[in-house]
Each structure stands twice: as C-alpha cells, then as structure tokens.
Specification:
The complex is a heterotrimer. The termini of chain A are close together. Chain A contains two helices and six strands, in the order E-E-H-E-E-E-H-E. Chain A is of the alpha+beta class. Chain B is α/β, with parallel strands linked by helices. In chain B, helix 3 links the parallel strand 5 and strand 6. At the B-C interface, helix 12, helix 14 and helix 15 of B face helix 2, helix 3 and helix 6 of C.
Chain lengths: 73, 679, 144
C-alpha cells in the first residue's frame, strides 16, 4: 500500500484506505472516489494529482493525495 | 393548478442549458432564504399546463458538506416538489448515479434526464436507456441540450410522469412498496428494523422512513439531531448502536458501508447498461496533455490572460465612448432646456454624470464577464486552480482563489461573489479580504491621470508597478493573515475537470447578462447615490447654497462642505504633501474609485487640462504616493456591501480598518523613501 | 498514413510555427521594453506590447516542445501542435475582434483609421494558426 501521490502517470490503482478527515472523505466519495474504486492516474507531477475515475477526471490536492492509500491492480 | 418541478444534477452536466431551454424569458433570480446561494425560478407552459421550475445548485451528493448541498437537501425535504428532474451526464454516468441513488433514498418523485448523449456517442460510450429505466424504475429521457435534441421529449415526459403519479396515488392510498426498486442487499435488514421504529412517530411523517434509516446509519449530523429530538429516540438508540457496531466490524466505519453499497449497485447498473468502445484521442486528452502540464500549462496562462485583457479593455472601447458621448450630450441638453438652475445642475452635474459614471463601465464589465463566462463554459477555467494550487498554497491560499483574483482586476464586486466556489469558510474569508488589494479597472483612470501628468516617459512602467504592488500586497497579506489569524492550512483541492467543449453562445450570454445585471443593481444605486451626495456637498457650504457655478469656479468651491472635509484631513496627510483638494477627492473615492478623477477635475476647476494642473499640484513622489494610496485604501462602497453580504459586518469592518492602515503606511513609506532618494 | 511520415510532418509544421511565434514574441517584447525606456522604434505589424510578446513567446515554446516530442517519437507530440494552434487561433480571434471594434470606433468618428495600425502580428499569426490546427485534426482522425 502506498499513497496516491507516489503513483506514476498511466498507472491503474485500487483505493484501499482514505485517511483524510470526514469532510474531505465525503467529498471524495461523492465525486466517485471511495475505498475499492479503481483509479487511473492521468497526471502526477509536483502539483495536484489528476485521476480518471468512473468516467470523469478529478484533480486532488497533493496533500490529500498523500492520504489516499492505493495498491496496484 | 401549477406543478412545481426541481432541476438537480452534478456541476458541469449542462443543467443551466436545460433550465434555459425549458423556461422562457420569465426567470426570477434571488437568493435562497438566509444564504447567498443563487436561486433561479422559471416558468414553463406545456400542453396548457403551467409548471414552475426551480433550479437547485449543482451538487455531487446530498450530505451536508457545503451550503449548496444543504440548500438542495432542505428544499427536497421541505418543499416536496411534484417532480424532481435529475440531470445526469451520459459520459460519466457512474459518478452521476451516486446522486440519483440518494434522490431515490429521499423518496423524491424522479425523472432522469440523460444529457450529453451526443458527446457520449463521440467518446464511444453507449447507454442502454430502456434497460436503465427498468433497473431504476424511473423514466429516463436521453437528450443533448446543447444541440437542442430531446427537449420536447423531456417536456412530454415531465407532464406524463406527474400525471401518472397522480393517478397511481388515487388508486393506491398507502405508499406503494414498489417505490424503491433499488435495494441495498447488505443493509436491507437494518433499514427495515430502523424504519419500523421510525414509522411509529407521527411527527416524522413528512420524511421518508427509509431515508431517515439510511442517514442514521450514515451518521448524518442533521438527521441525527432530528431523531434525537423525537419521541422514538429511546426505543431507537439501542438498536442503532447495535447496528453500527455490527457494521463497524465488517466495514471499519458504518458510513463506509452505505457508500460501498451505493457504489456496488452503481457498478452493477453500469455494467448492464453502459458499453464502451475505445475511441480515438479526444480533444480533452490532447488539450490536457499540454494545459495541465506543470511547466507549459503555467506558461500558457499568459496568452489566456492577454486575450482576457485585450478583449475586455480594447474591444469594449467604442461602446464606452458611445455611452460617454450620449451622456455628455444629454447633460448639455438638460442644462440648456431646464430653466430652473438648481434642478438643472442636480440632474446634469449630479444624476446624469453619476449614471454616466456607472454606465461607461458597463461595456468593460460586460466584456469581462463575457470572457470569463466563455472560459468557464469551455472548461479551461476549472484547470486554473489545478495549475496554480501549489503556488497559491505557498501563500496560504487555496488553488481556487486564483479565479476571484483574476476577476478582481476587472471589478472586485463580482470577484468576491466568485469566491462562493470555495467550500472552506476560512479559505473563503481570506480570499475575500485580499481581493480589494487587486487593482480593479476603476482605479486605472487614476493611474492614467497621474502617470500621464508626472511620469509621461515611463507611463507604462508606473501603471504596471501599481498592479504589481497590489498583487504583492495581496499575497503578503494572505500569508500574514494565514499565520496570524487562521492558523489552519488551506483546504485540499478536490475539483472535477470537465470535458472541454466549444462554449454555447446562449449559455455564455445568459451568464454574462445575469452577472452584469447583478452588478448594475448592487453597484449602480450606490454610485448614483454617491455622486448626488458629492454634488450636494459641493454646491452647499456653511453659508448655504453656492450656486452651480462652483463647478467652473475653484475659488467658489473652496467655501463648500467638500472643501471643509478636505481641509480637516490635510494635516493627517501633510507628510505626503497633498493639498485639501486631493484629500477631499479621496473622501469621494470611498463611493467609487472612479469618482476620484472626476472630483479632482471639479475641485481644481480644471476640466480638460486636468493633467497640466495635476503636474503643478503634485511632485512625482507625492503623486506616486497618492496613486498607491488610491490602490489600497478602503474598498469602494459597492465592494464593501458585497463583503458584508458574503461574510458579515465584522469582517467588512476589519477589511476597512486593515486597508486604511495599510494604505497610510505604504503611502508614508513611499513619501519618506522618495524624499530621501530624490530630495 | 505512415507513422514516420506523420511524425516528420508534425515536427516540421511545429518548427515553422514555433519559430515564427518565438521570433515575433521577442521582437514585440524588445519594442515594448524600448517604448518603456523611452526609445521609440516602430516596425510595421508590431505594436510594442510586452505582455502580448510574452503571450506569443509562450505559444511558440509550446510548438517547440511539440517538435522535441516528435523527434523523440512520442505520438503525443500532436497534442502540443493542437493546443498551441488553438491558443494561437484564440489570439487571432481576439485581435480580429479588436480590429472590428476599432472599425466601429472609426465609423462613429471616435478615432482615426489606419490599416497598418490594425493589421497586427497577432492577427496574422493567429489566422495562420488555422493551418497547423487543420493538420493536427487530420492527424488525430488517423490515430485510432
């Protein structure tokens, strides 16, 4: 398990754990990112991470991306 | 009999296009009770029936995460509309269905409008509408609102669905059990246990018991409060505790159980209904390869900003000139045709020049808002927070603060309203507080006057330095307030990047008009009032009415109230070397910064050759200090009113105090350093 | 279409437009800086707008990155050609709108009209960006 912020562009991962607070977790959830959802990393440079999930692209601040734990799938 | 219909959907699903297509001209725009979220209500007529259409804010879910979500949820629960039209994006059905499921939980009478079918086609996404209808047990209407396909079908479906529901309700008196075809297999037993207790309380009748049960498991604060205050809490508490304990064992946390169940259902639906064939490289993919790149994406903000400014200021120019011309001739006409001198002067020098002052800004604002709406609708605007997030975080600001900051160069009023997209309250307050420091277009005439008069060779640099000073002060202020007042770090960025598309002209025009209208209404009245006030204070003095000659006679105006106010302030500004006329002009600048130039012209009795007079009355150092002071001191009344509306009196007053002190300190520093350097 | 030929085409089109935008950007900026320092040099087509020069430069650099990607065989080079052309087109459209508004101002008698003042480098480069835009669209249509 490693944070989303450490993934490479083009990698596909499954979310295993979200360690953010309740508010941020709920917002992630409502935009399609919950434990078990499959993400495709579209962009991961030094800034926020862009993932493609459930048909849309979501940008996630780098700090938050450190708290989303994933596993390769 | 009028039916009430609510439109709801995720952001960027084309909800406003559909709203515009359904409703005609009669749109009422106001605010939802008690909050500053915009409420739009329109009317539709179809086959002789009347419909009231309420546009709910764009939301991803119905938890209580933002004001928008609370507004939408409260409306659905309390107003109980005849039909809720859920607009979903066919290209991202998976995510959109999350809201749909929550709407079904609430027990709303639902119709699903599947928008952007044309785009889905282009992307190689096929949606089986009939199957989706069967699974959800809800009428589904496919459409492409931007191409005006399917709007008539939607109208018909709205009418049919409402009438069918009415008939059914007459036949089956009790709530029909088939209303919830969507079941959450792992939760149903718990939901039943809870709802059977909830149903016992008559006071909770207006809620759907199933909804309350799910929300209790989800640990929703708002629903928790309602149940805790009801009669059944004692019976319910031990049951709920036990359920939560069981779920915690399986899922870690009970709320995760609900989320997981919802997404499991969605995954199954999507698997049955959506077919994807891989398409070619899309426009969005190609643009995002470049525009969201860390380096080149940042670099490409420059041409976009250049276009924004060029369009706003250069393309709008002849329209401003037309308006100026019309008002100038109007005031001459009034002066020559009305014989009562007092009335003629009040109308011409006061009201007309006041309305003129507002309306000459109208084209610039309209063009700015058009450009911004255009960028928003194209999808580019959503990328800017992404690109700037890291930079903005360094100054303690969230990435989303960029958009209000850019808009601030046009006008601080709409810019402050644009901060509503920032969810976190502290982030929002901070973004609002620094906004008046960004040099709005109303301050440009002041810079142009002084730079032209005293720095003719270096005009461009001097004016640019004012803008730079504003940005630097804004960022430093943000950094300082973040350290001293808000000791938290900015909230994390979570933002959807929608597909790019060519903006729809009617959507852009409608957005532009709404914003311009908002500005005219809010700022217009204030500026007109202010200019009339200036007029009164100029033509009256302690000795009474001075006559309208004051505007041509600088010796006469020295006896007016305006002069007295200015003279009172002169000692305070003595270190900067400004005379009483400059000080009174500053007082009027509180009304609106563009009034400063007009008042200076009036007070020096200069008119056309104002810049010659200024060149004698100021030294380069005192002029530069004056420009800086004008940049920083007091947001104009319109801005102040908006700050108060958005975050309350306390912060509005804080902004006034802070900016006054900052302006004085900066102007003083410029004077002292200037005198030291240039003698 | 042969992949290698496509790559060569992307590289050469990007190179031509990249160079034109970069050179124009530098000239425009140089004139602008001169204007600020009080040295007035006037060249046809150029107006001496530092900010505008930077904008042209940014577009030019985007084209050049496309050239680099094409040479290294990255198929995504077409993205750079496409995006730079769209931004370039945008610049052209804005320049055109400004021209129209000058025309309106002239018709109403608010300002003088001189074709040389209104046909600017922004307009010309912007309109020419249609060519690489069309080429990138064609390349995209092939990329399945």
């Amino acid at each position: 398990m490693y944070p989303l912020a450490f993934t490479k562009e083009g990698e596909e991962v499954i979310v295993k754990k979200i360690d953010a607070g309740a508010g941020a977790t709920q917002r992630l959830t409502s935009m399609g990112i919950n434990v078990g959802s499959k993400l495709k990393v579209v962009r991961n440079q030094n800034g926020p991470v862009i993932v493609s999930v459930r048909g849309s692209n979501i940008a996630i601040g780098r700090g938050l991306a450190m708290k989303i734990m994933c596993e390769k799938c | 009999m009028e039916y009430e219909i609510a439109l709801i959907g995720n952001p960027n699903v084309g909800k406003s296009t559909i709203f515009n297509a359904l409703t005609g001209e009669n749109v009422y725009i106001g605010n939802w009770a008690g909050v500053t979220v915009e409420k739009k209500v329109g009317e539709m007529e179809y086959k002789g029936k009347k419909f009231k259409i309420v546009d709910l804010p764009g939301v991803y879910s119905l938890t209580a995460n933002s004001i928008d979500e609370i507004v939408a949820r409260d409306y659905l629960i309390n107003e109980n509309p005849d039909l809720v039209v859920n607009i979903a994006d066919a290209t991202a059905l998976e995510r959109n269905l999350y809201l749909t499921l929550q709407l079904m939980e609430i027990g709303a009478d639902l119709l699903l409008a599947l928008n952007k079918m044309d785009l889905a086609d282009n992307l190689g996404i096929e949606v089986d509408v009939k199957k989706l209808e069967d699974i959800l047990g809800v009428k589904v209407v496919p459409l492409s609102a931007s191409k005006k396909i399917g709007i008539e079908d939607l109208k018909e479906a709205i009418l049919n669905t409402i009438e069918e529901k009415r008939k059914k309700r007459k036949n089956v008196n009790a709530k029909d059990k088939d209303k919830y075809p969507i079941k959450y297999p792992h939760l149903e037993t718990y939901i039943k246990r809870l709802s059977s207790i909830i149903e016992k309380d008559e006071a909770l009748k207006k809620y759907n018991p199933r909804y309350l049960a799910i929300k209790l498991i989800e640990n929703d604060e708002y629903i928790n409060e309602i149940i805790k205050n009801s009669k059944i809490w004692e019976d319910l508490e031990p049951v709920l505790k036990e359920i939560k304990k069981e779920l915690s064992k399986k899922y870690g946390e009970p709320e995760l159980a609900v989320v997981e169940e919802r997404y499991k259902i969605i995954d199954r639906i999507v698997k049955d209904v959506v077919k994807k064939t891989s398409g070619k490289l899309t426009t969005t993919e190609m643009l995002d390869d470049v525009l969201t790149d860390e380096k080149i994406g940042t670099l490409l903000i420059i041409p976009f900003l250049w276009m924004l400014f060029k369009f706003t200021f250069d393309a709008s120019k002849p329209f401003s000139e037309i308006i100026q011309y019309i008002f100038a001739s109007l005031s001459t006409v009034i002066k020559t045709s009305i014989s009562n001198k007092f009335l003629a002067s009040l109308l011409a020098d006061g009201v007309i020049s006041g309305v003129g002052a507002v309306l000459t800004f109208f084209p610039i604002l309209a063009f700015l808002f058009f450009a911004i709406s255009f960028l928003e609708d194209s999808g580019y605007m959503a990328r800017i927070p992404f690109i700037m997030d890291r930079v903005m975080n360094k100054f303690g600001l969230p990435g989303k603060a960029v958009i209000p900051m850019v808009m601030g160069f046009g006008c601080n009023v709409p810019a402050i309203m644009a901060t509503r997209t920032i969810e976190n309250r502290e982030d929002r307050i901070l973004t609002i507080l620094i906004n008046p420091l960004l040099s709005c277009s109303a301050r440009l005439p002041i810079y142009a006057l002084f730079a032209g008069a005293l720095f003719s060779k270096y005009q461009g640099v001097v004016i640019l330095s004012m803008y730079a000073l504003g940005v630097i002060l804004a960022l430093l202020t943000a950094l300082m307030f973040r350290r001293l007042i808000f000791k938290t770090s900015p909230a994390y960025l979570i933002v959807e990047l929608p597909q790019y598309h060519i903006p729809h002209l009617n959507v852009v025009l409608k957005n532009t008009w709404e914003r311009v209208y908002d500005f005219l209404k809010k700022a217009g009245t204030v500026i007109v009032f202010g200019v009339v006030l200036v007029w009164f204070l100029s033509v009256y003095g302690p000795s009474g009415y001075l006559g309208d000659e004051v505007f041509n006679n600088p010796n006469l105006i020295a006896h007016s109230y305006v002069a007295i106010i200015g003279k009172m302030l002169t000692p305070l500004f003595a270190p900067m070397g400004w005379d009483w006329r400059a000080c009174s002009a500053l007082v009027f600048g509180i009304i609106a910064k563009e009034v400063v130039v007009g008042s200076l012209a009036m007070l020096y009795g200069a008119g056309e050759n104002l810049s010659n007079v200024i060149a004698h009355a100021f030294s380069p150092v005192s002029a530069y200090a004056f420009m800086a002071f004008c940049l920083i001191y007091l947001p104009c009344i319109a801005t102040l009113a908006v700050i108060k509306n958005e975050i309350g009196w306390k912060w509005a007053l804080f902004a006034v105090a802070y900016e006054m002190i900052l302006a004085y300190v900066v102007a003083l520093l410029i004077s002292v350093i200037g005198h030291f350097l240039f003698g | 279409m042969d992949v290698r030929r496509v790559r060569k085409m992307i590289a050469s089109v990007s190179l031509i437009f990249g160079c034109s935008f970069i050179i124009s950007g530098f000239v425009e900026m140089a004139l602008g800086v001169g204007k600020i320092l009080g040295v007035n040099i006037s060249l046809p087509l150029f107006v001496g707008d530092v900010f505008g020069g930077l904008a042209l430069l940014a577009v030019g650099i985007t084209y050049m990155i496309g050239v680099k990607k094409a040479i290294y065989g990255d198929i995504r080079a077409v993205s750079y050609l496409f995006t730079a052309s769209i931004v370039g087109l945008g610049i052209g459209i804005v320049a055109f709108l400004v021209l129209i508004s000058h025309g309106i101002g002239f018709l109403l008698g608010f300002e003088e009209w001189s074709p040389l003042k209104n046909i600017t480098i922004y307009l010309i480069l912007g309109v020419l960006a249609v060519i690489p835009y069309k080429i990138s669209e064609a390349v995209r249509a092939e990329s399945t």
